[in-house]
Design goal:
- By secondary structure, the chain is of the alpha/beta class.
- The protein has a single domain, classed as Rossmann fold (3-Layer(aba) Sandwich).
- Helix content is 46%, strand content 13%.
- It is built from nine helices and five strands.
- It has a five-stranded parallel sheet with strand order 2-3-1-4-5, with helices on both faces.
- The longest helix has 19 residues.
- It is globular, with a radius of gyration of 17 Å.
Length: 214
């Protein structure tokens, strides 16, 4: 018997926008109302590829920029079979960062265009909803632990924000912008409302493919 599929929900934003906190709260809230839900985060640092990325982000190793971008993409692809299986079982996946971060962060570096950055991720499972936690890079720098990892500089985060704004102009992706400067509870309420509406729609529609032209 075919069961209704779970929804693929992604939270994006600049560093320190509160994505991880909100992902955890959302999964808890869904479980409390009887919706099967699990959290995933990218990069997944537990895999072999993820460990290479982790060392790079923590400034313990250096890698060429094209190589890093392709490793991030490979890290997403290696988890696709598991993601599809869970979605088919009716589990909603709440994902902390996805291909949009990959495109925004790499294209913020000199010499990269967004189109090239998107190509390795064409055909990934397409999110039913992408919520962008909007926080000014100035506010982000005031939050705890900012600066610990490679990309956490104010100027770079400003460039990343601009690239996200470009990506959000794509009408093929269901984007919602959330004001992340609100209280944690207010942000959560917004996210939960959008998610519950999306889950009801996703149950009866097939999973799409990201950035795949019709």
């Amino acid at each position: 018997m075919a069961s209704k599929r779970g929804a693929l929900i992604v939270l994006e934003g600049v560093d320190r926008a509160g994505k991880t906190t909100q992902c955890k709260k959302l999964v808890q809230a869904l479980q409390q109302v009887g919706r099967p839900a699990e959290m995933m985060r990218f990069p997944d640092r537990t895999t072999t590829i993820g460990q290479l990325i982790s060392a790079y982000l923590e400034k313990k190793s250096d890698l060429e920029d094209h190589t890093v971008h392709l490793l991030f993409s490979a890290n997403r692809w290696e988890l696709v079979p598991s993601m599809k299986k869970k979605l088919e079982q009716g589990i909603t996946l709440v994902v902390d960062r996805y291909a949009f971060s990959g495109a925004a962060f790499t294209s913020a570096k000199p010499g990269f265009c967004i189109d090239w950055c998107k190509k390795p991720d064409v055909g990934l499972p397409k999110p039913d909803l992408v919520m962008f936690l909007q926080l000014s890079p100035v506010e982000a720098t005031l939050r705890g632990q900012f600066g610990n990892e490679r990309y956490e500089t104010s100027d770079f985060q400003k460039s990343v924000q601009q690239k996200f704004e470009q990506l959000m102009k794509d009408p093929s992706v269901n984007w919602k912008v959330i004001d992340a400067s609100q209280s944690i509870e207010d942000v959560h309420d917004n996210i939960r409302t959008h998610t519950l509406n999306t889950i009801n729609t996703a149950e009866n529609t097939p999973l799409g493919e990201l950035w795949k032209s019709e």
